[in-house]
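INFO batch 0412 | record 1 of 1 | parsing
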Amino acid sequence: MRAERKITLSIVAIGFLVVVGYFGFDYYMGTRLVRELCARDGGLRMYQTTRAKGFLDETVANALYCFSCFERLAKKQFEYVDIHVHGDPAIASPLAIQPGYYRLTLGQHGDPRCEQWAKNVNLAEWARLQRVVGISEQQCVAVEPLPDLPIGPELSEVREKIPNERSVDVRVDRWTIRHTSTRKTLAEYRNYLFYAHWDRIFNFAGGDVPEPAAMCADVMTIVDGINALSQRTLRTSMNQIPKTND
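INFO prediction complete | emitting tokens
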């Protein structure tokens, strides 16, 4: 009996060491690969600057309450920000905002364009967001529908999985500024992320998606980088940025 017990304990110990070794190897290889990718081509990459009074922001999660749009207008980074409202026009209410492209600019208080979304938003929340970003009470966010896809710079975001021989879960978040007509890439910001198998299985942090075990930078640095992506690539009369290459 003692011999059998010892064998059982030995098997359990070996199994435990194999599991720990697997997760340890996964963590080591994943963090190492992310460091290599971040050092090689992470962060901001600028290829060409251009003059633009504004751009189409395809990264907006909630078009009706576009906090980042309000903030850019309040800080006078751009004269306008275009957004894309998605949805099925066949089932939309006649009072609802129809799917399509819209241009946000600053207007004077009382401008009828500022009432474009009055029936689709909580006006108190709409006004609160404007105050938070610093838009004065004498101004308001004006909204104008656009007939088609606007011609000019477009900011988009995509997440892709990085194939690798180490069999670790590494992905890249890529923010890109392209021209809508030529599709020419003007600049990119890349953040590489590693998701450990341990966290994906057990997800101790909770939530629908586990936290990455490693990435190029902290969240605030990434936000600053994305802001720099548009401000340094797109030069306006309000935002004169010299040509640079990183």
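INFO post-check: Residues 152 and 182 are 9 Å apart (CA to CA).
INFO record closed
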